[in-house]
Batch of 4 targets.
Target 1
Amino acid sequence: HIVLPSDNSWWATILPKKYADWMPAYEDSKLHSEGRIIEQPSATFHGQPTAAAWFGDTQGATYTPGSWKKDDPTTISVLEALKQGGLNPTDRLAAMDSEGIDKTYIFPSKILGLLPALRSSSFALEVARAYNNWVAEYCANSGGRLNPIAMLPQQDLILAVEEAERVRKMEFPAVMLRPNTVGGLNIDHPN
């Protein structure tokens, strides 16, 4: 998994400005997006409120190379996680070399729960595009060792197919669909 920057740099230059106010932010331990609350606090991330997984001090701990060796992965600071390859592709390649890994597929982290929770299909498409463009750039100069996995806006099948076709032209090896309920429907729903 990739650790997205904690600032807005992964989407600010790509996302249409009309959606900037809809991007996720925490207020009173509640995740807001699209002008509404999309997640309440719960102890699901190493016993920390889920806010820790989005912006907190433990962000990226479980995505850090070698974190599985620690008794408590949450002891990895954000800076340590980022230095070990969560944010910088050069650092990730060095971490891969140290663990004997030749090639990896880069899966998303922060937006995994965000995209299925969005109601607006056009906003979901723009968030997916922003992420996909960012992760393509992250992997671009790795000599094929870092391979991005795209996210699709599951709110609208036509938009999802269009984005799948776009990322295929960008040479993404695969796309990822979350099994979450989206718009009240499960992924295996016939409609």
Target 2
Amino acid sequence: VYLQKQQDSLLITLDSLEIKGDPNFELHTNLDEPEVLYLKLDKNASEEEMVVFFADSGVTEIKSTRKLFNVNSKIKGSKQQDILEEYLSTLSKLNNRNLDKLQSNFESNSTTTFNEQQQSFIKQKYTYTIQFALNNYNSEVAPYLAVYEVPNTTVHFLDTIYNRLTQPIKESKYGILLKETIDLRITEESN
């Protein structure tokens, strides 16, 4: 089992251990601020499963099963994780509704194309994500979502999210990353 974080484009291992028998274990790291971490279960040479979670100082408890490690995971810990789970829960409902629409249109021989439905869903996801980030301007989750969930949105929306953030969130890891993303996109668009 590996506790990892993303640094640049690589996953860096913070702590690890080999599980032999007892399924209860502890991994440790020091965090300067809330951050997305990864708990990777290496089942064998060809099979890995990963749980993504928002960690903060203090204890984060993850319960799962070996068989369905990432699917059955229950995470208890940071307030950022609670906010991220709220976002993911609603996004899952949107995904399910989209799948139902796809099935219904397929069964009724609708003239709406798959690509049109996909574009509609992407628009819904982006709209929901931007609104969610704007509503959670006092959490590190907001700039995280802006950078990783809606990277192709217009600079206008990224900038709107950034300007709404509280000063401590602007100064956080993901707030700084959002600002760098905006600046890079502005530079690319002006060239």
Target 3
Amino acid sequence: SGGGPIMRDKLWFFASGRVQTNQNYIAGLFSNTNAGDPTKWTYAANPADQGFFAITQKGIDGRLTWQASQRNKLGLLWSEQVSCYCPELTSATMAPESAIDRSFRPNRTVLVDWTSPLTSRVLLEAGFLSRTEAPTRRVPDPDVNPLMVAVTDHGLGNLTYRAFPGELRNVTLKHTIYRAAVSYVTGSHAF
């Protein structure tokens, strides 16, 4: 991350980025040697292939702040994030072939804010925020037979295997928020 002035006492920037990856192996959970075989209805653990849960997140953010006049300051923030929970839902009760991949491409946040001190006691503020989330859920292996149904085996500690037990819905979420405020300071204060 870094930032600084672009134009002295007029325009500033700040930018940052990050990449985060986590992978957690699940004790006692292994892939199913019968996975993908529609003729097999049993779970047979493959001890050479341990089940895991993984997350990868990447993000980049940028902000500009402009002192438009002595009494008017504008700010713009743009944030892009890409996340992949691949695979997601793998657990002690969900075999790897029953898990899904869930990704957010992109998660976007745009924020515009304005401040203006009218006097040494009155501050005006306004802002706008727009957030878009586009989650996608899919079966990780495109060769999985879509006709296979999930099995939950109570004799194996409620382990679900063979297929994903639900439906895959993909919905884009959009949020818009407006705000405005007038602040009156009763004591002495410099904005």
Target 4
Amino acid sequence: VNLSGVFFVSQAAIPHLLASGGTIVNVASSAAFIGEAYAAAYCASKGGVVMLTKALALSWAEEGIRVNAVAPGYIETSINEAGRQDQAHYRRIAERTAFKRWGQPEDVAGAVAFLCMPASSYATGTVSSSMRAIVLPAASSRTQMSGSSDLAPSSAPGGRSNSASTLAELAPARTKPASARPPLTSSSASM
């Protein structure tokens, strides 16, 4: 759901976005840039959201659709409420952040709002670095290991190289005139 859900919702939104020149803001995670022990699938899926954001931004820019993302760190939400009951864990996470506290949903909402505003009308393919910068490396390399934010561009989203319908097939060809481009959506899209 973390990656394929973003892809399919983006595809479904195309008719509305074409009419309005709208904006997509995806939610990635600081885990897209910092590997976390025992969370390989989560980290990989959020890394995929980052690259999907960049690919869709380039593909849909000519249509006036901007695609950006935020990559929050540790945010206090109901999904992690049980884990936050352990005060030692709560303090350990807070100490690893620049402001020595967990983020609040409002912290993320502000970044999302900015990416939707006319003030950011030139931004596309951007992943909010201020959100991911708050997470500092853990003391133990087993907990986190810094990684590159540049994933291999030759691999297809979701790690499938033989996908029946790739983004390259769905996105407009940059060298073709608009009348010769394939449609932006495809009923055979798979991920």
